Amino acid sequence: MSHVFISHSAKDFDALLELHEALRAASIPDWYVPNDGGSRETANQSIDDAFAMIVLVSASSVRSKAVKQDVERAKARGLKLIPYQIDKARLNGFFKHEVLPHLRLSSTTPDGLKQLVAETKQAYKKKCPVVAVMNLKGGVGKTTVTSQVFGAWQGALGGRILLIDLDPQYNLTQTFFEMDVADSSAAEDRSVISLFEKSRLHARDASSPADSWLTLSTDPFAPTRREKIVHELMGEGSPGGRLDLVSGQFEISKYAFASDPTALEMIKEHFLQSIERYRSDYDLIVFDTNPNATFLTRCALEAADRVLAPMHADIYSLRGVRLLNQVIKEQIPADKRPDLSVLFNAVGRSEQSSFEADARNGTYNAKAGFDLARALMRAALPRSGHLQVKAPQEGQPAWKQLTIHSGRGGGLKPIRESLKAVALELKLLLEDA
Fold first, then answer.
1. Which segments of the chain belong to CATH 3.40.50.300?
2. 29-34 long-range contacts, Cβ below 8 Å, gap at least 24?
3. Alpha-carbon distance 29 to 210, whole Å?
4. What is the SS3 assignment for 165?
5. Taking every pair of C-alpha atoms in the chain, what is the biggest distance, in angstroms?
6. Cβ-Cβ contacts under 8 Å for 279 (sequence gap 6 or more)
7. Whether pLDDT at 37 is above 70
8. Architecture (CATH level 2) of domain 129-432
9. What is the tens place of the pLDDT at every residue in 220-262?
10. 247 and 177 in contact (C-beta within 8 Å)?
């Protein structure tokens, strides 16, 4: 579980607790040694597991041997430093050299703590970006992209990846598991609905939110441990690594019929808090979504850092992308608005179609309603039977559904290279954001 490490002097405990509470309210996990005389080995391990380090800069911390060791460890690990000055400390030579170049935030400035939390939140999101695979037209390959591109990402580029099935038809789940497995998981609330409402995963005496389409549970809950809700796709005999799935279910369709806006807003906040919590367990989170503008669409867009929109080289797919961009611009608050990347899917292998060429040259920018040419990824996925979604065979492990690890027949190598090219380009886009 990743966290932000807080380096501090024991004399700065009040400032430490104030910061801890502010981070907790923002759903950012943190870790700190209760005093600066704690175990060095424990502190080093916690620093190694962190995504960033906040240094409380004070008159006592600049003289602290433990704080100096913390900063040296962070530098050796290439960890992002976020110093925060809490008094008028005079910096010594070490702090001037190692900390001062990063020091921009202070408790004496207006909204200093708020700015610190915002910068930490940005680092937290960068550590584990969230991608929503979405197009407001069906049949463009969203489930194929979610499973195969990000399966290739995990297989070729590594990292811990969580796939979340936000489509009530739960085709992503059925890509990896037979229907009865998906349904039995949903029957135990070990499924996507437990990201929105309190369920039997959170409390034994809770009722299942899937049992009633007429009520919405707004009771607060702490997101459950990932082991209780996910399905591990890289099981026995797999090449290894972590690729997990939160399975889908039809009952999340109930939110489209709910008429209580206050309850829906609270349930959306539950979902957003759950995603923020699971960022600490993964390096990438990916949503497979439905092709409609619904409550689930809003939830996915507000949680996502980037939208990946697959489209075919035709005017109908373009219309879906145009509507998607319109929803993002008009319905999502500016501070939560994700970036948009567009991926051509199922294109010809031998030569570029005139539609694709025109789109890349800007011909369709006006029809798209935005700079489509700029949003288009350079890589594209070819039309291939290897990428068609197939039902899993009985007894076959889930990871065998991934083209990067399985499959036979001619042309498989270039298909795998195309998947890896898309994954690598997207990874670079997320890192540069």
1. 129-432
2. 29/1, 29/2, 29/3, 29/4, 29/277, 29/280, 30/3, 30/4, 30/5, 30/6, 30/54, 31/3, 31/4, 31/5, 31/6, 32/5, 32/6, 32/7, 32/8, 33/66
3. 30
4. strand
5. 69
6. 2, 124, 125, 127, 128, 130, 285
7. no
8. 3-Layer(aba) Sandwich (3.40)
9. 999 999 999 999 999 888 888 899 999 999 999 999 999 999 9
10. yes
Residue from 295, 363, 380, 312 nearest 140 by CA = 312
User: Which residues partner with 163 through β-bridges?
Assistant: 245, 286
Alpha carbon distance 56, 77 (integer Å): 19
Q: Which two tokens stand for residue 417?
A: 């290279």
**Homologous superfamily of 3-124 in CATH?**
Toll/interleukin-1 receptor homology (TIR) domain (3.40.50.10140)
- DSSP letter (8 states) at residue 154: I
Structure tokens at 169: 């038809």
Q: Are 60 and 29 in contact (CB under 8 A)?
A: no
Per residue in 100-136, pLDDT (tens digit) is 999 999 999 889 999 999 999 999 999 999 999 999 9
Helical spans, DSSP H, in 382-411: none
User: What tokens appear for 80 in the block?
Assistant: 């992002």
The strand pair at 231-232 and 242-246 is best described as antiparallel
Q: Tokens 């990067």 appear where?
A: 404
C-alpha 120/C-alpha 115 separation (Å) is 9
